[in-house]
């Protein structure tokens, strides 16, 4: 795994979907594609109060990523310094082998550019000491990002 | 290397106006976050995040348009800005020459930037400045005036220091104000209790420790029973009441029959839960906030629901107190000078308002009036003809009930102008559309915000407009310049740069335009100031359980409760509300927000769905008075009261220029025939949930 971890505090989450929209806006992601996916269940009554289940899923940035192993052009890379897994758009040929290889099918195919996109924890921001867009701008700061505790 | 910079500005997606930081790349906005120096600390909701998609969207008015077909037919000719402004100014000159300046009506969405709009109307010489609030917060505004003697915004909600927050007409976690959401979540993290009273299980209810699913229209009964318990069990703050409350004995006598057992029959909430709840409130007093409401144009007694919320706060001693509803401070309260107002460029018109506010209805707040009553003046010519209507960033045909009836009221208008950044039913029905730049590509006048720490803040242009749109100051100052030949006074408002306006506003304040560069806002005090209350500006100087001002207008403010009508067999009471990803109907065609939620669904209780043979996910047709408003999916759930049918407001668009929104979901306001005449006479708000609908499997 990468040295970072992204976590959702479900008590603070208000299911507002700002994380998804910030991700899309910041990364200019085409319609129909999401790099981070927030899931909220429909409300159900539990002990007289509605209950809504929530999760936020983006790439796990694996220690030994299958997507990197199968990539025929080495466009999918893992950064040694911090373990962030990312795609170099110019080198990607859109063969989708990474999507098949990923146990969670995290990378997504962008038909407009014939390449694969995936969450890179907003590397450009991380390199400036900032947090991913979804975390920085989470409406209620329910998402957190940081180095894992050893 | 891309040129990177950033601009502090103010969001404009909904009516909250959150402070933002816009990141730019090569001169264009590339990402928006909440202003990190503000209490938002970077947080910004999904709507705010989708602002760049709005700017880039070409499915909005792209250049000035002048109608060539019939009203609403959608036949336009494109015009240059010079031509369009000349056209509007010339029409205004003709109309005011024939019918007087008072024949011009304005409405907008209210908020912190309206000084410019009010100045324009005063410069014209018309008293008819209105905003949208008859379909929003008028009842709570008037409730505040009737109890506190001052407007609702002159008290703050000190969530972070509260021990118990009660939400009744405020879905705080879905009708999102980012700073408020964070304050509430921080309070809950520290152990503050949350109670929610609603007909439906909202996201706010999902965080509550007490959720009361009341029968629709019975909130007043619920509140009266709470007051009954607080008084009869002596749970109120006796010292506070002795010092600050007027009319306590009359209130005690009035609620005497309103026992929890009585309220149980009305609300469906077990009496013992009401009793226990009153006890819990007393344990947290005075650090209690019973939110008096936001969008409260709901029932015929919503004014009294809001009033009783203030009364409960008063009994618990939380009005004017830290951790409750402390008084906010204006610049003057912290020893500073306020912004110089643009309205002060002109004398106040002596003419009476067309909507009757201030003379026919002396108890109501004359500021933004009641626009629905001004529409009656258009239709009847009483008290005088209203012939021109300028509608700014406001869509009455979607905000008000019964759009066909509203269009008929507008038939006598000689000029209907929309200033708007998105298409709307009202813009489509207008004679002239003046495309407003989005909040990313326009500046606004400097605004003043009262609070525990008052501040000035400014919206700066983050980028140049991508379409042929203009800022509000450019439009209004452009019209003022054109009207100056017949109305020389108007020259005073013919500013040619926003800096000139800002410098005018900041005169003698000790603040300069440069001071906004550091954070986007300028705080006028170092620390929050909790002000001791000496007297309230009511006739009695105290919090009024019976309002003196309303009594003078022959309105009973301890109004006997009337049980709401139950829906006839097979019918539902219509209910509507908000969701985090959309706002006010104008975001439904935004590409990023449409992707999040393309249509609304009909919430109905499992037992009612079974009766009608409807399964979750079935398409249903919703109708009122036999007229269908369209088809939508059913959401069958235990999370709504069986008498109600709920849908998120703002869907069911029909305009061909909105390819994403057209034909998606159903418009609740089309399900309210005759609804323009159904309003709360005590509070002035429309009663949008006093209507019944039928549902059948489609």
UniProtKB/TrEMBL annotation, chain A:
Domain 4Fe-4S ferredoxin-type per the UniProt entry, residue ranges: 4-33, 48-81, 83-112
Under the heading InterPro entries, the entry gives: 4Fe4S_Fe-S-bd, 4Fe4S_Fe_S_CS, ET_IronSulfur_Cluster-Binding
Tell me the domain of life.
Answer: Bacteria
Lineage of the organism: Bacteria, Pseudomonadati, Thermodesulfobacteriota, Desulfovibrionia, Desulfovibrionales
Record-annotated membrane-spanning stretches: none
- SUPFAM superfamilies this protein is in? 4Fe-4S ferredoxins (SSF54862)
This protein's record includes keyword Repeat? yes
Q: Which UniProt keywords apply?
A: 4Fe-4S, Electron transport, Iron, Iron-sulfur, Metal-binding, Repeat, Transport
User: Tell me, what is one Gene Ontology molecular-function annotation carried by this entry?
Assistant: 4 iron, 4 sulfur cluster binding
Q: Name one Pfam family in it.
A: Fer4_11
Answer yes or no on keyword Lipid metabolism.
no
Protein name, UniProt field: 4Fe-4S ferredoxin-type domain-containing protein
Q: Give the matching Gene3D superfamilies.
A: 3.30.70.20
Query: Record's PANTHER family?
Result: ANAEROBIC DIMETHYL SULFOXIDE REDUCTASE CHAIN B-RELATED, PROTEIN NRFC
From TrEMBL, chain B:
Q: Which UniProt keywords apply?
A: 4Fe-4S, Iron, Iron-sulfur, Metal-binding, Molybdenum, Oxidoreductase, Signal
Residue spans making up a coiled coil are none
Q: Which InterPro entries match?
A: Asp_de-COase-like_dom_sf, MoPterin_dinucl-bd_dom, Mopterin_OxRdtase, Mopterin_OxRdtase_4Fe-4S_dom, Prok_Mopterin_Oxidored
Q: Which Gene3D superfamilies match?
A: 2.40.40.20, 3.40.50.740, ADC-like domains, Dimethylsulfoxide Reductase, domain 2, Formate dehydrogenase/DMSO reductase
Q: Which GO terms describe its molecular function?
A: 4 iron, 4 sulfur cluster binding; metal ion binding; molybdopterin cofactor binding; oxidoreductase activity
Pfam families documented for this protein: Molybdop_Fe4S4 (PF04879), Molybdopterin (PF00384), Molydop_binding (PF01568)
- Sequence ranges assigned to domain 4Fe-4S Mo/W bis-MGD-type in this UniProt record: 4-59
CDD domains from the UniProt entry: MopB_CT_Thiosulfate-R-like (cd02778), MopB_Thiosulfate-R-like (cd02755)
Q: Tell me the protein family, please.
A: Belongs to the prokaryotic molybdopterin-containing oxidoreductase family.
Give the protein's recorded name: Thiosulfate reductase
